[in-house]
Amino acid sequence: MDPGFKEKNKEKCDVTSFLQTPCLSGRRSPDYDRPNISEGVKLNLVVCGSDRTLKSSVSKRILQQTDRRSDEKIHGRQISLVELPALFNTPLSEEEVMRQTLHCVSLCHPGVHVFLLIIPDAPLNNEDKAEMEELQRIFSSRINKHIMILIMQNSEHQTAELNDGTWSVIESFGGRHHFFGPKTQVSTLMEKIEQMLEENRGEVFSTETFLEAHMKKLLQFEEMEKKIHSLETRLLSKERDDDLSVLMLRKSGVGKSAKEENKMKILMERVDQMNSEREELMKKHEEEKRRMKMIVEEERQNQDKERKRREEEFNEREEQYKREMKEKEDHMREMRDREEWERQKQEERQKEDEEWRTKKQISDEQIQRLKNEIEGMIKENKRIEREKQEQVEDLETRLKEERNIKEDQQKTFEEILKLLEEQHEDELKRRQVEWREEYEREKEEMKKKICSETDDSIQVSVHVTFSLSCLLC
């Protein structure tokens, strides 16, 4: 066996063992368990295709913006959308394309739910076909479960029929497609995407899936190389046997026939062709192996960064939780202090209200008592005024009767009255003076009596009543 092949085979085994890590093998860690779509997890979408304008248009329609990576809540679900750069006809190297592709997938944690491949509603050109071939070459056939082809229409009147070439390409990606025109509702697209999620039961295309596919491809290269090496060994062995036979014939003096020479020539050409294919395959294998090492190392670094980021987020959430708990405790303490203060204020207000009610009750009782006394005084004053009025009326009645008598006497004794007129007038004046003096005396006595029993308001009332009585007199 070729020593160089042994060395290369040993290196292949090292690469294989290098790839057989928990994060890259088929065993999923708890952090990468299949998500439950029913729990309303974030929907991760990757928009891909060769036409950047069409990709931006779809991104704008879905997220109402054209950022390279945008998060927005649409149709009741949080959506993360990433635009994948073109894979074909790009100035980037193969390694940079692989690195960029892996980075786009790693942005969608825990993985990509749906790839939206944008193509125009027209016969596919060579660039579109090459882009789709690159997409399937890099992501492998595993992408077929997660891809939906969006056929962009310029107007709603375009036909929904596809030509054979376009339909064949769509079938190679699983057959899921959707016509997307200027007036097409995004909700219709979202319904189809939700249907895909249900069919896939929440399975995602993760960086783990990406690396597993490339590891499988690398193992296939190794297996093919082993087969080529085995075939090459058999051909070389047969070639040595043929050379030995030719040498024996030459020694025996028997020359080769034209048929044998032609056969030997074809055999040597085949050996040269196989050597050339083997060298080309070895170059591809070495390139793929180097690229895989780079991708795996970068993924490890990304996982370390992700782990550190999660630790930082956990520490930050823990600190936030502690701050919130402290704020909550402070708030509860403030609430208790405030409740205690309000309770004390309430007790003080109740005590003040009770004292005020007691004072008000006493004041009301005093006011009521004074009102009763005043009402009694007013009633007494009215009684006195009524009696006084009766006396005045009685006096007026008597005076009237006396005047009548006097008039009668005057008629009867006109002459006597004439003689006694002066005497009578004097007597009347005297009597009026006596009445007035008596009335003044009674008034003074009444005034003294009222002043001793009533307050100033009653005195005013008595004074008014007395003034009225004087006027009546």
From TrEMBL:
| Signal peptide limits | none
Disordered, as annotated region: 294-362
What are the recorded GO MF terms, alphabetically?
GTP binding
Tell me which Gene3D superfamilies the record gives.
P-loop containing nucleotide triphosphate hydrolases
Q: Which UniProt keywords apply?
A: GTP-binding, Nucleotide-binding
Q: Which residues form the AIG1-type G domain?
A: 55-218
Q: Which InterPro entries match?
A: G_AIG1, GIMA/IAN/Toc, P-loop_NTPase
The similarity comment for this entry is:
Belongs to the TRAFAC class TrmE-Era-EngA-EngB-Septin-like GTPase superfamily. AIG1/Toc34/Toc159-like paraseptin GTPase family. IAN subfamily.
Under which name does UniProt file this protein? AIG1-type G domain-containing protein
Instruction: State the species of origin.
Output: Cyprinus carpio
